[in-house]
Amino acid sequence: FEKAMFGGYDMAAVQNYQEEVATELANAQKEVAVLKGKMKVLVDKIEEYRASEDAMRLAILSAQKVGKQIEDDAQARADKILGEAKNTSDRILGGLQHETANEEAKLLNAKNVLRKISGRCA
Q1: How far is CA 78 from the centre of its chain?
Q2: Where does the signal peptide begin and end (predicted)?
Q3: Which residues contact 11 (CB under 8 A, 6 or more apart)?
Q4: Coil, helix or strand for 8?
Q5: In contact, 11 and 19? CB cutoff 8 Å
Q6: Which CA distances in Å does 27 have to 13, 16, 56?
Q7: Are 18 and 10 spatial neighbours (Cβ–Cβ below 8 Å)?
Q8: Beta bridge partner(s), residue 3
Q9: How far apart are CA 27 and CA 65, in angstroms?
């Protein structure tokens, strides 16, 4: 500042400086307000993304649980079907073995009868 004639500062220069400082302060306050608004928008977006991320994480966990349940159910059904098929095949095989034993006994009996008849005829 320039000195005034009576040992002080030039009032016009001081007032000009005060106006410049006030203008710069007002501009800085406006910029701070704009930046705070932008920051709030960004914070809101981050929260929105976090909520989406949490929802996706829950959906993935749910899908994994459902997939595991489906897999377990399918394995249980497959085991049941295989068990029933084995029981059925064992039952059929047992019946065939019994029938084979009966037929072999009949064949042996028929051979014995045939020998007896052949022995009488000779």
Answers
A1: 24
A2: none
A3: 4
A4: coil
A5: no
A6: 21, 16, 43
A7: no
A8: 9
A9: 57
Q: What is the 3-state secondary structure (H, E, C) of 55-87?
A: HHHHHHHHHHHHHHHHHHHHHHHHHHHHHHHHH
Convert the pLDDT of each residue in 11-48 to its tens digit: 788 899 999 999 999 999 999 999 999 999 999 999 99
Q: Taking a C-beta distance cutoff of 8 angstroms, is the pair 17, 26 a contact?
A: no
Which tokens in the block code for residue 15?
């007032």
What are the structure tokens assigned to 122, written together? 């000779």
Q: What is the pLDDT of residues 68-122, one digit of tens each?
A: 999 999 999 999 999 999 999 999 999 999 999 999 999 999 999 999 998 887 6
Of residues 39 and 7, more confidence is placed in 39
112: its two tokens: 């014995």
